[in-house]
């Protein structure tokens, strides 16, 4: 999975319907740039460095795998989309929207177009106060000071007045209602990547399958008939052990847990890989174990077509997966869909991600979050 960067943006407006403009900016940033995980209160602050109408200001923190320069380009495009027209004249001016990149992790960046941390942030109360609301464990990498220290040292005595709280898209998705979510999908569907993104954005705990530790997996792809039963039994034992161990660390009534598999996948794969006699024996053992396993409050299935699965498998480059045939993936997909149809007491959401890349494109990740929101609400 790509590394998620923690990015702080400051937003300001002193033209038009300032509240509406800032709310639109928050929506656009979330849908097009990165996942907004915290937003400050809204402040009214006097114009800084020139005479004009007061500004509305806020700050937000978002997660994004994008580089700082790409984020800057996207932010500038959003400003233009929201109606900002940049003047060639020098000095500060009124503006319908202003979006500044204040911090990027605790990195120091100095290019012709971008300087991070923002070189004037420590002098501006309208940046420091909203940023304090975000409750970040962030230290200025040049000044080596935390936000309380920056606030105390600032000489800006501007009267910054709190106007109201601001909403942001993640608040509309009450995932914490579900203590245990399982995200499933075929080989290469991206379930582990999605689990990690959701866990980071919603501050959840993860249970991730230990597929790489299975010694039978490379052998199975070389000789399926010989190693199928050993592989499936090994997976079943390991999944049972892992879920038992991992869930024992958490309180299923208090903690928010996201897993990249549900133990029922063992039966789905076994039905495809085992002979009839082996499957009957396997199923008897599985049903004994399955009765002891907690069921997820929400089961999300990521559907991808076979061509896209094969492309993803090739890109991630695991040598033992490169010869997986298309018909094997199609059988697994049918197995999942048959299982889903047979479940009457499981809260299920199917999301087709065949034409989406939720790692590279924030729009696609925002689409998934919106599908979850509609299901949760």
Question: Top keywords for this entry?
Answer:
377 residues, alpha/beta, six-stranded antiparallel β-sheet, five-stranded parallel β-sheet, 13 strands
How confident overall, as mean pLDDT?
90
Name the shape in a single word.
elongated
The number of helical elements comes to: 12
Count all strands and give the number.
13
- What is the end-to-end distance? 29 Å
Based on CA atoms alone, the radius of gyration comes out at: 25 Å
Task: Characterize the main sheet.
Answer: 6 strands, antiparallel
**Order of SSEs, N→C?**
EHEEEHEEEHHEEHEHHEHHEHHEH
Determine the strand fraction and express it as a percent band. 15-25%
* Helix/strand class: alpha/beta
List unreliable stretches of 5+ residues: none
**Which bin fits the share of residues in helices?**
40-55%
What does this entry look like structurally?
Helix content is 42%, strand content 18%. It is of the alpha/beta class. Helix 6 packs antiparallel against helix 7 and helix 7 runs parallel beside helix 9 (276-290). The chain is elongated, with a radius of gyration of 25 Å.
């Amino acid at each position: 999975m790509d590394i998620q960067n923690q990015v702080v943006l400051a937003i300001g407006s002193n033209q038009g319907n300032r509240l509406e403009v800032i709310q639109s900016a928050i929506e656009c940033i979330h849908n097009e740039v990165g996942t907004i995980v915290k937003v400050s209160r809204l402040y009214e602050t006097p114009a800084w460095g020139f005479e004009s109408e007061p500004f509305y200001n806020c700050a937000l923190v978002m997660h994004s795998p994008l580089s700082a320069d790409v984020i800057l380009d996207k932010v500038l495009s959003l400003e233009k989309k929201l109606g900002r027209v940049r003047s060639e004249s020098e000095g500060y001016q009124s503006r319908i929207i202003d979006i500044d990149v204040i911090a990027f992790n605790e990195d120091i960046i100095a290019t012709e177009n971008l300087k991070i941390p923002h070189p004037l942030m420590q002098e501006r109360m309208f940046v420091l106060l909203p940023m304090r609301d975000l409750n970040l464990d962030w230290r200025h990498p040049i000044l080596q000071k935390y936000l309380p220290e920056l606030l105390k040292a600032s000489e800006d005595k501007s009267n910054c007045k709190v106007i109201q709280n601001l909403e942001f898209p993640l608040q509309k998705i009450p995932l914490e209602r579900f203590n245990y979510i399982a995200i499933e999908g075929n080989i290469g569907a991206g379930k582990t990547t999605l689990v990690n993104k959701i866990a980071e954005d919603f501050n959840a705990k993860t249970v991730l399958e230990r597929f790489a530790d299975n010694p039978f997996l490379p052998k199975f792809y070389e000789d399926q008939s010989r190693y199928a039963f050993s592989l499936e039994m090994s997976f079943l034992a390991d999944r049972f052990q892992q879920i038992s161990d991992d869930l024992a660390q958490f309180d299923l009534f208090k903690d928010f847990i996201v897993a990249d598999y549900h133990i029922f996948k063992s039966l789905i794969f076994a039905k495809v890989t085992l002979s009839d006699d082996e499957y009957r024996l396997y199923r008897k053992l599985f049903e004994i174990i399955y009765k002891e396993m907690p069921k997820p409050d929400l089961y999300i299935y990521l559907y991808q077509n076979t061509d896209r699965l094969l492309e993803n498998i090739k890109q991630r480059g695991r040598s033992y997966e490169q010869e997986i045939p298309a018909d094997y993936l199609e059988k697994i997909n049918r197995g999942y869909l048959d299982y889903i149809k047979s479940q009457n007491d499981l809260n299920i959401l199917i999301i087709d991600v065949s034409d989406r890349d939720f790692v590279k494109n924030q729009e696609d990740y925002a689409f998934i979050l919106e599908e979850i929101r509609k299901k949760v609400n």
